[in-house]
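Hello, quick one for you while I still have it in my head. A protein chain has come my way and I'm curious about its shape. I'm sending you its amino acid sequence along with the backbone structure tokens. I'd be grateful if you could look everything over and explain what you see. Here's the protein in full, and shout if anything looks odd to you:
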Amino acid sequence: MEDKNGPRGWYTRGYLPHFDAGPFRTQFITFRLFDSLPQNVLRRIKQELELRKPENISRETFILAERYLDKGYGACFLKRLDVATMVRDALLKYHLERYRLDAWVIMPNHAHLLLRPLEGHMYEKIMHSIKSYTASEANKLLGRKGAFWMREAFDRYIRDDEHYRRVVRYIENNPVKAGLCGLPEEWEFSSAMERRHP
């Protein structure tokens, strides 16, 4: 009999492949606002990948999408201090209770997490809870209704210690790379800021 609370392995919810390795397996997650990648950009990404035929389509999709995300497409609701603060507080609320959050950053139109589910908690349910709650609260703050996050997130499980270190650097340097600040610890909504001011 299949354990419904056990790791799912590879699965898809439509467009992107996901990997749920269960508790104690760290994952690099990117989730973005509903309007952060316009349809013409998504078509361009798809066409480029069809021409190149990369070996790891999930990784290449992420790399190309990230390039566009950092340009700040869409309404960038996460630029608002009240919205970003609420999302940050929601992310940190269950740190060390449901999951371990080793690195994180909230950008104007997306967020990155380095997250490890703890015993009894599944990646998919954690992400559903985070996105559902923050979408509802953000829409209240913004006085709007409708979609807030894109349905699917990009996720990659962490292979080894070196991969883990690279991902922490990538996450915390994202605001610098996007030209939003000069040093990672200057970005208020990140684990780099938290490390600087424990």
The first strand starts at residue 9 and ends at 12. The first helix runs from residue 39 to 52.
